[in-house]
Amino acid sequence: MARQWRIEYEGALYHVMSRGNEGGIIVQDDHDRKVFLNILGKMCKRFNLEIYTYVLMDNHYHLLLKTTRANLSKSMQWLGQTYTRQYNLRHKRSGHLFQGRFRSFLVEDDSYLINLSCYIHRNPLRAGKVNRLVDYKWSSYLAYAYGKKSQEWLNTDPILSYYSKRKRNEEYRLQVQSYAKEKKKIWEDVSHDLFMGSQEYIEKMSQKFLEKGGGNKEVPQQKEVLKTENYKNKIFKTANALGFKMEVVRERGRVRDEDKEGRDILIYLLWEEGIYTNIEIGKLFGLGYSAISRRVGLMRPRLLKERKLKKKYRDASMLIKI
To answer: Is 9 left (phi over 0), alpha (psi -120 to 50) or beta?
Structure first.
């Protein structure tokens, strides 16, 4: 499984989920469920986390949480390892319990918390575990919808503060009941299988953490982010510096002789960067997959022999490279 890009910073909000290995169960009975929740509480204290919402299903779990330190990966790794050890010991088994790495979505701000908590709490209904959420006790729903006594580490205030003080449980309950209509809407704001937020937020976070981390093209999510409008703008600027217009090259199909060299340098640079596939590069230039392979094949030996061409290539690479 390709590893997920982890963005971590103080005060970050996350929707986290993890499934059993090969879809298998992670709890067999109520004892396991109590052990899991107990370890979850210890994780909060040990790593200084705030958990706003949770649901524990037979083969997976969901958490909505906030990190006060940049330590999501360490926290979730500790949770998985600690619970797996106790589970394996009790059930006389060995090996992995969870399926690879946990998944996480970075959440923009509090405005997404209500819909996310509704989505998380409705898991038992979607799975057919119960007909009414009030009958499922292995989530934080009863604390939100009925004011029931909850785990001491559960922090309901950030979400319930959006409702009137006297009727907040009833209002939240009604919100969850009507949430089925909102399910599609919330996932429209998910980008790159990583961010949950507005386009402005996604671009801001992408730029900030790609620049900070240098960009890793081996991480699929970073590779997708590198294909956003900001990177396309760099391509267009590099084309201008090489003396041709991307729009004209793509629309005409045929390229003037004086533009071919610049075009082929840019094609080679994009191929060398490895962010786009040959098919995707071809779409940028109005060419087919095989044509891109030919242009790359012709450019490589020329760069070894032609000094002026090599200088032109180096100047352009300063503009386009991550």
So the answer is: beta
